[in-house]
C-alpha cells in the first residue's frame, strides 16, 4: 500500500495501522515548515531528542528557510536536512517497519513520500566480559543485546574491505533484525547463500529466545542429539578469529550470543585462554581439556560398573573400602551424588556473585558430610563425583558440558539397571548419537578428523606460535551436502 499526496489521508491511515493515542510510547506532532504542513511520528525512548530538536529548529528557522513552501521533497531532503541517515519511502509496510524499529518519520503535505530520519538510540548495558567465557588475560569486552554495537565490535577488530554485514528480518510479528557476517574473500559463497536463503524462508511469529530460537529454526535436531551443533560465543575476539578462518557469523538483535557456522566438535574444546599463554603452556592446558571430556563422560559409569559388578577387582584396586554395598545401593549413591552436585552447580550459577562461592563450598561440605552420616552416600562416591564435576567445569563451553552430563546420566542408569550389557549398549548408543549429530550444511561434525586433515588437526590439538598459526588459505572442509543447502 502506497502513501497519497494528501497529508490528512496519510494521517488517517496511520491511525488505522498504529494505536496512536492509545499506546503512550508513540509520539506524534503537527509541524509547519514555512506554510507546508507536516506530521511527525516517532517512538519514545528510541528517538534521540537532542538531534531531532536541532534538525527541526533549523527547518523552522526563518534564516534557514528560503521559501515558505516545499516544492520538491527530494531537493528539500538534500538541501535542508543535513543529517546523514535520512531517506525517502513511499510504502506503508516499509515505513511501519522503520518507525517501529526506531527511526522517526516525517510526512509532508503534497507528497506521496515520507522522510525517514534514523536518529534512533537503543538502551544498552555496558560491554562487560561474559561470565560463561571468562579468561584470566585478554580483552574484557563482550557482545551486548544491541546489534549495531555488536557490529562495531567486529568492525573495530577486522578493518577489511571484504567484511560484509547482510541484514535480514525474521518474524512476522517481532521483525527481529538478523545480520549475517562474513569475509567475502574467505567464506564459502555457497554456504553464505544457503544461510541467507534459509533465514529469508523462515515463517515464524517471533524469535522469542533470540539467537537460540534462530539456532533451532536453522538446524532442527532430534531429542537424542544433546550436543550443540552450532557454536555460540559472546566474545568479540573469538568471533573475529572464526571470521578470519572463513566461518560465517549470525548476529541476532536483542541477543548477546553470536552464532558461528559451520561448526565441529573440536570448536567446543578451544579456549581463547590458550592464546594468551605461551605455546607450551597453552598446549598443556588444551590437552588437559581434551582429557576432561572422556573423564567427565566415563568416570562415574565405570566406577559404578566396577564397584557394583566386580567386587573383587574393586577391593584389589582400592576403589571402595568395603564391598558390602549392593548394586542397587551403589546406583542410588551415584545418582544421589550426581543430583546434589548438579544442584550445587545450578544454584551457584543462579545465585548472586557475593553468595555463589560460599553457597557451593558450605553446601557441599554440609550436605556431603550429612549424606555420608545418613548412609545416603559414601566418601568414595563423593570423591569421584567431585572429580567428575571438576572435569565438567574445565570444559570451556557450558552447553557442551551439559550435553556430556546428559550422556553420563544415561550411562549410569543403564549400567545400574542392566550391568555390563547395559554399559556396553548405552556406550554404543552414546557414540552413535555423538557421531550422527547434524551440522548446518551437512559438513562433518568431526572435521578435521573426518575427513582427515593432518595440518588442521595438529593446529587444533597443539597451540602453535602466532607466526605459524596464520594459514595462507582457509582450510578445506569439503562441500555442502546437496540436501542441506536450504
What is the element layout, followed by pairings?
Blueprint lengths: L6 H11 L8 E8 L2 E8 L5 H11 L13 H8 L5 E4 L2 H10 L2 E5 L5 E4 L29 H11 L5 E8 L5 E8 L5 H13 L9 H8 L12 E3 L2 H9 L3 E5 L5 E4 L17 H31 L1 H6 L10 H24 L2 H21 L5 H16 L3 H38 L18 H8 L25
Structure report:
The chain has 486 residues and is of the alpha+beta class. It folds into three domains: 7-117, no CATH class; 131-264, no CATH class; 275-438, no CATH class. 46% of the residues lie in helices and 12% in strands. The chain has 15 helices and ten strands. The protein has helices at residues 7-17, 49-59, 73-80, 92-101, 147-157, 189-201, 211-218, 236-244, 279-309, 311-316, 327-350, 353-373, 379-394, 398-435, 454-461; strands at residues 26-33, 36-43, 86-89, 104-108, 114-117, 163-170, 176-183, 231-233, 248-252, 258-261. The strands form two sheets. Strands 1-2-4-5-3 form a five-stranded antiparallel sheet, sandwiched between helices. Strands 6-7-9-10-8 form a five-stranded antiparallel sheet, with helices on both faces. A hairpin with a 5-residue loop joins strand 4 (104-108) and strand 5 (114-117). Helix 9 runs antiparallel to helix 13 (379-394), helix 9 crosses helix 14 and helix 11 (327-350) runs antiparallel to helix 12 (353-373). It is elongated and about 100 Å long. 29% of the residues are buried. The model has no long low-confidence stretch (mean pLDDT 85).
